[in-house]
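Usage

Read records sequentially. Each one opens with the input sequence:
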Amino acid sequence: MTTRWFNHAPVLAAETVAILREVPAGVVLDATIGGAGHAVALLDVAPQLSLIGIDQDEAARRAAAERLAAFGDRARVVAGRFDALDSILDECGVSKLSGFLFDLGVSSPQLDVAERGFSFRLDGPLDMRMDPSAVLTAEAVVNTWTVDRLASAIRIGGDERFAGRIAKAIVAARPITRTEELAAIVVQAIPAATRRTGGHPAKRTFQAIRIAVNSELEILEPSLRAALARLSTAGRGVVLTYHSGEDRIVKGVFREVTTSKTPVHLPVPEVPAPYRLIRPITRTPGAAELESNPRSRSARLRAIERVGVAA
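and closes with the structure output:
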């Protein structure tokens, strides 16, 4: 079966490739390979590199494998979630990385298939699982979580100031089984004046429930630290975030590992931090990319390089 429908425009592709093409010869990990847009662009211009791509979405893996077939044994696609990257790399016989990429969030093909349940615009079952074989679904979150737990998830994962009102409205309307139902409930829970600005009123709540279903915030920090620990000297990492919660985690980890641990009050030579931030510290899509791909609007790119000797 063809996978050409899984057509996802890679966000900030030129910027990502420009950073990763300069790394030493070796293996790059694409921790969220999706349709392999970034991977193809990188392998095209960096013959010294091979790539291992991870994705928990079977449709994405099929699309990626099809697009990467031309690169032969330089590219390998593996089933899994990026919090399993250590075991995946060990099984692949890879101890060190020349680079890594985390492109977080949901891809356009996932949003555009109603049956996946990610979209607040298309009616479908309340699913939202990146891995369709996973147990927890959006329907279970919406129909079984307490008001307080729902409100907390919507507030943290969606930066939604009306999280409490929305959670109470959801609980009062149970059972809810369709995305169209949920979107309508959220819209009605938000004050009318607020609904008129800032895009679709249900966008933040749907994002938050998706993040909760897939444990996206919980697994990010340990996974990022695991990838950083595997970087070779002069290796680089790139992270694309689409939500302030994700970006705070990435920013915090990067700040920590790029700060010298030498106590300022002791008369000893400073020990440099083992990593440095690649400047500009944060990149965002330009006008041309925003015009061609409006969904890239919230994207933020952060990049880091290992400068100390890798253990």
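Summary fields computed downstream for this record:
- Residues 216-230 form the longest helix (15 residues).
- The chain has 14 helices and seven strands.
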